[in-house]
Amino acid sequence: MGKKVFENIVKLLNEKQVVFEHLTHEHVHKSKDAAKIRGNSIEQAAKAIILKIKPKKSDTKYVIIQCVLSGNKKINFRILRNLLNLKSASLATPEEVLEKTDCTIGSVPPFGVLFDIPVYADNSVFLEEEIVFSAGTHNDSIKMKSSDWRKVVKPIILDFSELDLN
User: Fold this and answer.
1) Among 74, 81, 86, 87, which has the minimal tally of Cβ within 10 Å of its Cβ?
2) CA–CA gap between residue 50 and residue 150 (Å, rounded)
3) Which residues of the chain register pLDDT less than 70?
4) Is 15 helix (H, G, I), strand (E, B) or coil?
5) What domain count does the chain have?
6) What is the Cα–Cα distance from 52 to 50, expressed in whole angstroms?
7) Distance CA 106, CA 98 (A)
8) Is 53 helix (H, G, I), strand (E, B) or coil?
9) Strand partners, 50
């Protein structure tokens, strides 16, 4: 399932001549657990969340987007709806995530470009020089410079997060 996604990320990074480190580890599902097992700070963890949004001035059913933020943050949906002028925004279901990304929740990489979906990055992602993220599986992660990730993915950068106290 996600191994092909991992291979596509590696191929893209190699094509762009980006230096990265491949980390393998125990099976994890949450950013906090992944950071702990990988030995990086939760602030370095970049979590990728798939959302369903419905723009205010649109007749479309909904649009799938990806939001990327630091592992110690969560999406403030009120702010996101205001910034993007949305009627609604909600988490995609596990089935929708799998259908759109070929990954299960907790293994989705911050590479919406590979899934042909827009990527919105919170400024918190760029507070650390390096980011570490799940790379298509629950056992593979990639560590790279946040500036390189930005150049490759070309996300729309906004401020839509708040501290995750859980």
Assistant:
1) 87
2) 18
3) 1-2
4) helix
5) 1
6) 7
7) 11
8) strand
9) 66
Look at strands 46-55 and 86-91 and give their pairing. antiparallel
The letter for the amino acid at 157 is I
Q: How many CB atoms lie within 10 A of CB 30?
A: 15
Tell the residue number behind the tokens 């205010």, with chain if given: 56
- Match 């056992």 to its residue by tokens: 139
Q: Which residues contact 6 (CB under 8 A, 6 or more apart)?
A: 109, 135, 136, 137, 140
Q: Domain of 117? A: 3-163
Q: Which amino acid is at 11?
A: K
Residue 85 burial (CB count, 10 A): 10
**CA nearest to 140, candidates 1, 47, 3, 35:** 3
Q: What DSSP assignment string belongs to 75-143?
A: E-HHHHHHHHTEEEEEEPPHHHHHHHHSS-TT---S-GGGGT--EEEEGGGGSSSEEEEE-SSSSEEEE
pLDDT of amino acid 93: 97
Structure confidence by residue, pLDDT tens digits, 72-117:
999 999 999 999 999 999 999 999 999 999 999 999 999 999 999 9
